[in-house]
Amino acid sequence: MAKLWRFLSVPIIVAVCLGLMLVPGLVSHSGNTVYLKIEPAVKYVLPGENFTLNVTVPITAGENVSSAECHIDFNSTYFNVTNVTPGNGPSVTLKNVWDNSTTPGTVDFAAGSGIGDPPKTSNFTLCTIECQAHALEGSAAVVFVYVAPQRKTQVLAPSAVDYLTDWSTQVTNGTVKIGSPKLTVNVAPPLKGNVTINATTPPSYPNTTNRSWDEVVNLTAVVSVPNWTFTHWSGDLTGSANPTNITMDDSKNVTANFAPNRTLTMAVNGNGTTVPAVGNYTYGNGTVVNISASPDPGWEFVNWTTANMSEITNATAKSTTVTVDENKTVTANFAEVTAATLEGNVTFPGAPQGPRWVRQFEVRFFNSTTGNETAWSPMNATTNSTGVFNITGLDPGTYNVSIKNWTCLSEVNSSVTLGAGNTTVADFGMTREGDSNNDDWIVLADRTILYTGWGTQQGGAGWNAHCDFNRDGWLTLADRTIMYTYWAQHGDLV
């Protein structure tokens, strides 16, 4: 049954705002700018039905209009103007209909009025434009342009108000919606799925139904064969949300797209594990899968490889994602670690654990059998606030390892075995502080250097950082006490 159509009015303030936005540089004299009000803004009609568009001129106190003109620009595919009649204002003349619009398929119609004397000083209807909808369905935009032409000021009497003295061209938009919008639903490829429309499944596709204007229709894609999956909507509806809604503000054509499920094969090259674990997995076409790799001890992760590398988000990250849009094999590649790591543990006298434990050391490596120092020794290392340092990339083997810095004696940890891919922990104990001149002895020469800067603070005259054995920033009795604790001793390398 044919639907009754409704219309909405445009408030005056809307037309005013549109006019101010669309006509830059508008001039107003003594408040005489006149704005156009168009009713309705949106009108719903049936094919072949007659309808009207009313053009009114609202006039505020102190304004007056002696002539007015209205232009309507519309798409003649959907309706045409059949007549124009005057409103409650002066007589209105139908001007020529001409096609000078810049929009293809549209034409212009104009109606004008010579109001004469005295001018209009209150709201009036300029004209009623009579139209007829064509025997087809669709939505046509309507643009109304109101023109109040320039007039010179005329004095009718000592108390008379002025005529309108400025150009006032105002524009507002409307829409004519004719017939019923159609919803066409299809599936691709055929027979692989269905779409329920407001919970009802069409008997065949493509399926076209008449809907109501601005109706919200629910669409749900349903897989109908094994090992296939819904992927996305296309046409006048996009995205992969399922179920979803579509608003019938015009005729719509929508396709539900289905694709076969895909197989993801996880594999490894080397020693390590993956998530998902090594094996075959089934996913919907286009699924983004989280993958991760964990190397076995003595091995390290290198990268991921597959036929289409662009489908792996980050091929060198242990944890990443892969898009499964085809049957594919993803391999986690691992390499055996050939280098060793040394972790050294050191403690310090006279200083609390924390920033004062951060110290630099020279670390030397000697062949435990021959006693010869290796070609890649010495190396530098810095302890952290807990007295731990790490050196990576070392050749595997068994070594005598020494540590020394410029305030302590050398300490040697014998027969430290470094294994490939492993971290070996060596405890060097507490450092013996007091070697002011770095000759690996604590004797009179060292005490003389300490006394030279005795009582000074870091940064002051005579300060010598090589005598600050507790790293407190002062050369005092505390440093001498630490020195005497190890008096006359020498380092392990002497």
Description:
It contains three helices and 32 strands. It is mainly β. It folds into five domains: 7-178, Immunoglobulin-like (Sandwich), CATH 2.60.40; 182-260, no CATH class; 264-330, no CATH class; 340-430, Immunoglobulin-like (Sandwich), CATH 2.60.40; 444-485, no CATH class. The model is unreliable at 1-39 and 149-167 (pLDDT under 50).
Write out the strand line-up for the largest beta sheet, numbering strands in chain order.
Answer: 1-3-11-10-5-8-7
Helix amount, in percent? under 10%
**Which geometry do the CA atoms define?**
elongated
Major sheet size, sense and barrel closure: 7 strands, mixed
Number of domains: 5
Q: Per CATH, what is the topology of the largest domain?
A: Immunoglobulin-like
Q: Which CATH class of the largest domain? A: Mainly Beta
Low-confidence stretches: 1-39, 149-167
Mean pLDDT: 81
Structural class: mainly beta
Q: What's the gyration radius in Å? A: 45 Å
Strand content: 35-45%
DSSP helical segment count: 3
Structure summary, number of beta strands? 32
N-to-C CA distance = 110 Å
Present the secondary structure layout.
Elements: E1 7-8, H1 12-22, E2 37-39, E3 42-45, E4 50-57, E5 67-75, E6 79-86, E7 92-94, E8 106-114, E9 124-133, E10 138-148, E11 168-178, E12 182-188, E13 193-197, E14 207-210, E15 216-223, E16 228-235, E17 244-247, E18 252-260, E19 262-269, E20 272-275, E21 279-283, E22 287-295, E23 299-305, E24 319-324, E25 328-336, E26 340-347, E27 360-367, E28 379-382, E29 388-394, E30 397-404, E31 411-418, E32 423-430, H2 444-452, H3 477-485
Parallel strand pairs: 3-11, 12-18, 19-25, 26-32
Antiparallel strand pairs: 1-3, 2-4, 4-9, 5-8, 5-10, 6-9, 7-8, 10-11, 12-14, 13-15, 15-17, 16-18, 19-21, 20-22, 22-24, 23-25, 26-29, 27-28, 27-30, 30-31
